[in-house]
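Pinned message: reference record for Transcriptional regulator
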Amino acid sequence: MAREPETELPAEFFGPLDRSPGAAPLYTQIARKLEGAIAAGTLVAGTRLENEVAMAKRIGLSRPTIRQAIQDLVDKGLLVRRRGIGTQVIQRPVARPVDLTSLYEDLEKSGNPPSTVVLSHRVEAADAEAAEHLGVPIGTPSLHLRRLRLVGSTPLAVLHNVLPAPFTDITADELVSTGLYETLRARGVVFSVAQQRIGAKAADSAEAELLDIDTGSPLLTMNRTALDHSGTIVEWGDHCYRPDLYSFETTLVSR
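Predicted structure (tokens):
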């Protein structure tokens, strides 16, 4: 994926700094200015900040002061330092309720408009694994999808889905413009129940490249088999998410 250019922040961005006795430390004042710009959307997710040496020179402060300001925002989950990339504004974490909805729908409802890159879209005979998940004979035509879900320019999840024969006509274009579940509902599917398992794993090299993380970084995983109102399996999904940007929420009720 193309790397965002560095953003140079002029001294005027930070305004006059209060150096009087009793004033907040200079690193705190710098951190507050950056945090305010992130909250206001002036510095959007994916923005790369210039390096600490250049920023310190531009503002007229020491490098340790800038380093501490940056570290404060890293600790708050607003910035991230990545080897070979630098310091970058990250997407606010998305907390997803464990409901029978799609990631696309949940992101839209949470005010995080998603975008999709279809990595692969092919119809092929179901192998033993796909057949078992879909409850169909081996060799049955099935649609295999692999997509990258982003919020802004920030990659959030890699989604792998397999669908049975009635839905092999779903096009890649449909999946770019809308979510999978909305596409299925448009074809008359009424979702009823799903079996779901949430876990974790280490990112392989392909996942790491797509999600802009290091190989071996932890990933949140979710496997789901969804059924319609007649009890027929309509899709199986095997997804992985960046845990720094994503979590599942559940409500527990005492019995």
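Pinned by admin. Summary line: The chain has a mean pLDDT of 85.
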